[in-house]
Amino acid sequence: MRYYKGEDFDSLVKEGVHVIDFYADWCGPCKMLGSILEEINDVDIIKVNVDTYSDLANKFRIMSIPHLVFYKDGEVISSSVGFIDKETLLEKIEETKSSR
Fold first, then answer.
1. Residues annotated as part of the active site
2. Distances (CA, A) of 78 to 15, 27, 51, 57, 65
């Protein structure tokens, strides 16, 4: 897991499977989901603080957090808004890996 620090976003997600976690430090459900994300190590997880990087959050039209966006080879495969359990998260990751 790594934190987005203003890099060129498109180049970060260009190849491979990525889970983008839009979150805020003050968000309780984000913290609960964050502890689950820490247990996942077979995909690249990029955490984006919506308060710090509101421009990126606006680009994705993030209205509620936590908000996960699942990428494969530079394309959005799916997204999820709100807290999800570990089993659901793992299913979404597998769906992303096996897409196209």
1. 27, 30
2. 16, 22, 23, 16, 15
